[in-house]
């Protein structure tokens, strides 16, 4: 293992050990800042300076945030930095100037940094458990490889600082991807208004170590919602007609949500993924909720589903004399890659050490809020591509045994750093 | 306040301060035993000796029981007694011999002793909070007056020991009424096989202090069930057709449970009172549950509902390619009072100090597992009646502000002790 | 067979041969008028003079009425009379004065006269088929004994004219009972405002020939509705999202109608008895309907159900972006008998020739719009009872093989005529 | 207008005047045979000789067939031919030998000949009404252009007989396309086992006169089903619990059919297009039905939907204690064109008189049972293409005002005859 690889592995394990779910990436942000300070960058923004706070969605409540801030403090984050993030704004943007930073292209690299609210496996054959870097934050886990993403972001800065490039590089350390909540406020922050090229990266996605996909397509636009139904309780034996049954409302909604008509214009999705209601067998349920989502192959199809879902939710409530409040908790549009940028990545990957197979396209079939950033750049005349760096992963994404093959870390750094150098030179 | 009343009040407040939900009445049983030992009874059985353990329903798991045993130990229950109750069998039966215990009638008095799994109000105008005997067990509360019932049971023994009576008295300190789970195993224990007369008592039920109802009717037979649906998760965006959706199964079941046809033979009830399912908005839900109940004006009507509910639950699961496990968590038949015993109680109450109004009958419109004991006694040729002792209660039964008017405690003791003396003498 | 009985049988068979469904009793009314003219009564009102036309419900359209009027004309009804009924107002009220018509009580007898829209059996063992008086009106049948009722009404007038009585008798030949539509407009006509006693009669009801029930109870209040859902069609393969699916709306309504909560105050009913929608397998359905009913043990309970049903129907439509029109097609309140009048009928029946068994009460468990008349009389201080005259009937009411035992006709005439004489004399 | 065009127009109007729905094309088959006999073909098969009778689906009952046979006889079809078709097997296959019929390729042209069970407009601006060739068969109409298809089939034979071609031509005059029922038995008849090239043709499809689409794609595989639910009736007021409610079963099925999960592998469809149940508002419904369909972008996706639909239907019935019978009424797989054949048609169309615009592909978004024939040919090594000949049509397909622009008839004949000549010569 080269010293560079050793450093990447060590950094990734550090992140892996301290996963922080969406909007709680206090220690993670602090650790990134610390590292970047050590490397030396030309500009560095954090927290409230990298987000339009109004545009955030799915943020936790104050108690929740406070607990994670305390946790970060105990883990070594500086009081100074924590004070700046305290309102619940996390993430960072690092700026590195290459040659001709004014005249050359502005190139952004987006890496996301949040963990997931799920427990990590402690099985003996789960490498993080076996080698002692399993999550120390109970109930949280880097189960989607964002620990590797943060590491690759730092690695690219280090590599380009050493090897040089043309133009200006902005690395976006984005919070809250898992709730499709962090990209929109970063897109609205002003920092990417001048970006000419945006690369986003994801590791794994069922592609093995040594494989690179130049342009991931098939992003479904998504809207994640929470509906809270409120009725009135009564004793189910003595006063069954005195209640207003929120569980009946919820069940009617579930049945009719899944029954929203398919659309001839393309794929749609709907899921009532987390539901509940009521208090006891003998009480007519006074409250219920659905946490769910709708998706569409295009943003318009997602909006078709959202409008229909709203109609179902409101009338299911009203049908059972209940009220309902519907909150949008996260949202992302669909997006597509620019062919010229995909061409370039495809060519670069084909000559990168360690890369054995290059695919031009593959479909995600899921959602990603990087699409907000991609569209923002494209709407202003820039180009964007979403690159996948393969990694052998024993468990699927989001499962308790997910892990990355650390051999893919230097491959990711090389492909992206080379691609950025080529973009600077050739402006595709 | 007489010394007797003072003692009843003090005892009731002690029970109130330490509510223990169904099957966890470790400290409560210990405290009753301690008190009865002090009074002196002719026989005293506890825990495994008062229940047919096989007939229990709705019992908690081992960890849960262990925690409450520890709690009881800290609160002063003796290790000795706790050892005897350890398997999760609570409750006690006290035997008091009057004159001619062999030749005279065997008379049982049933009082239930469990609390509810709900938090108690800490409002300033809630008397237990204001006077310092609010629940010390977080999340548990005597919100249905069983603290008063246990107290009355002890008070009756004390009164009859002093005043004498004919025959033999068995006071049944029954656990787990709130989950309709404790009466069946006590009925099957053998202890009431020789009972000629059974009186059960409840306080309140919307009747004011000074009012007595000689025979509560309108018990709905009930069956409390839990259905667990199991499917298979998948990513709702990428693989919507690979899951087997347990929430769809649950919602279809809820809709069709409430739609079970009404029955021409009398009142029926159904409720899906506590439901839930799934894990996250973007995962096809792999599990779901319904905790619910069916009731009927007669046991046959309840069984009609149960059979229909089973059919709905099984086919809702199968419809969505899920499995379902249905567990009966509690059950009680319907029952009626014996007129001769009601006559006697009505007459006695009419001459009891403090009683201002006597009703012959009123309808419960709910369920009570005392019906198991009533029917057991009746099936063997005995007679039973269910007596209500009114008490002003500011909040409704099962609410956070429920409380009893302690002036009703001595009234309850008098009515019941007098009734037992009259039964012994006149064998109605 | 006495000549009186022969005459009753012949008259009943004539009615049986020409059944006319609700609001189409043109020939039937004409035939009754003809008969009463022959007998001679003191006053005779028909059609528009016996109904408040505004209060009618469930009336057929003009073409339908015209066809039945033509039919009645061909069957011998006079043009003169048909002209008076033409607006679709059928039925008659005959007034017969006894002794002291001003000073004595006003007594009403209600008989209904409409047939049912169903085909009659032509089986060899169906007496009307075997003996040649099967329905000549295809698709219509006297399958509920109203042919016998009309006959008994005429028979009672004839008997009392001969035997005399005290007071004044009004016989109400009421149309449109089967759609619970004729009683309300007759109650509002003014004719029964001065009625002191009302007897209504029904034959059969599963009671054998020779049995009389003095007071039928258990009338469920009912409201019969039709809901028409309107959406928009589209090709189910090519444009599934362009339609607005009325069948989805209807199905959601059906599921939730049956799931309206049971009511603690008494029995309720709901039924979606006739539903349909759509045009072809490959077209998103643009229309659908539910013809259904709600009932309640009391009028208030029926109204509870109706309000809930309306809520369900409207929101099911709205949920699927459809509209719905809800029409009340018929309606009747609940009602109870006056004990004093039941006492009298019970006593009279006990001494009537041919009566072998007298029941004081039995429950209908269904609905009847006679309740409108009963309540109207009671609200003005009068008394009412609903009498059942048993008759052996091979098929059930409303089935193709229903028939009456004609031996019950003179029994019915005797019981009612005697009861009216007793009422006149004793004013119970 | 040339004499050839005049003849095509006259023939098409004759067919238009006598539309016969699926499996009832008695007169149509007879007329085609008559015409082919006049032209002279090398072989001609009809009815039972062109179908595997066992493979038919969606066939009418005997009375229905008899009525249409009588009708055809009155319209001039010969008794002889009608005798051969009598079992309900319609359609014909004509064989025309070109040069080298043994050594050259066998080329099939498929035209469908059935009408639709819907009334035709009699509006003054509907050309068939204005010019006197509106449907004379009440309730039936050529509303999808199959009259033009039959005409084009005859026209192509006539043209090729005159102009010559290489190989052998089989023109398949296929019955019962509208119920996706006629192609499967023709595919199984043996007649196309030796076919090397298959062209199918459709007119219109929203393409204007002068436009040709060389290869229609986007056929959805389809399965059309009928589910009959059987329960038990009871009086909804008196005996609500004695029935077994088929409408509840149907409604539960409808709700859950539409809620079958979307599939990640491609488009699916489901529709409950024609439903009904019950008899009267006051009867618990004893029967109900759903006539519906499922579709999929591939045959596998359609089968996924069908398996799920079956599961829903069976469990919805069982849930309400009803039985269900599910019958497949029609079915067609998906299919794709062979590029080489599309290339040829595209090239030919580009040089045909009257063709102004040639599209290579367009999506049908619906279903067609020609796919059975296409797949049968392809499975045996042959090639297939589905050609659309544009025609201005005022009303949409299947509507009362559908009509074709007769100027498209000679274009269709030319394109297809030229294509067949080119295929014979070049064997693409």
Automatic annotation (TrEMBL), chains A, B, C, D:
The keyword Metal-binding applies. Its cofactor is Mn(2+). The Mn(2+) ion enhances activity. Signal peptide: none annotated. The keyword Secreted does not apply. Mn(2+) binds at residues 144, 146, 178, 202, 398. SUPFAM superfamilies: Bacterial exopeptidase dimerisation domain, Zn-dependent exopeptidases. Pfam families: M20_dimer, Peptidase_M20. Residues 225-317 form the Peptidase M20 dimerisation domain. Keywords: Manganese, Metal-binding. This is Amidohydrolase. It comes from Halorientalis brevis.
